[in-house]
Amino acid sequence: MMNTKLLGALAAAALLSACASEDTSGAATGAGTTTAPVSSIRPGSQEDLVANVGDRVFFGFDSYNVSPDQRPVLERQAAWMSQHPEVQVTVEGHADERGTREYNLALGNRRANSARDVLVSQGVAGGRISTVSYGKDRPAALGSNEEAWAQNRRAVTVVR
Description:
The chain is α+β, with helices and mostly antiparallel strands. It is 41% helix and 14% strand.
C-alpha cells in the first residue's frame, strides 16, 4: 500500500514536471500572440537619429561641398526632422589633422554651413539649426593616414 502511494506520487510529479517544461523556441506565447522586443530608443532623440537616419556626412580632402553620395543622408535627416518638429540640432563641422588650427576651424565652419544649407533646402527651418566648428580638435579616428583622415572630414548633426 505504501509503495502504491509512493509510485502514485512519483507519477504525479513526473506528469507535472512534463507539463511545466519551458518553451525555449521564442515563438508564440499565449493564445497565438508573439512578443516583440521593446525598443529603448526614444523617438526624436540623438539615438533615434543615429540608428534610423545617420548623423554624419563626409567630405573630400580640402572640400566643403556636400557630394552627391552624401546628400541622401542629409535628405533623410530633413525628413526625420519634419517628423519631429520639436527637435533642434547643431551641425558640427570637423577637419582632419592636416593644416593649421585656424584653417581647419574655417574649413569645419564651411562644412557645417554646407550641411545646414542642404537641410534648409529640404524644408527645415533655419532657426532650428545652429552650426559650430571644431576644426581638427575632436577627431573621430586617431591616426595619420588616409583612413583616419577620411573619418575626420565630416559634419555631424547633434540633437540639442
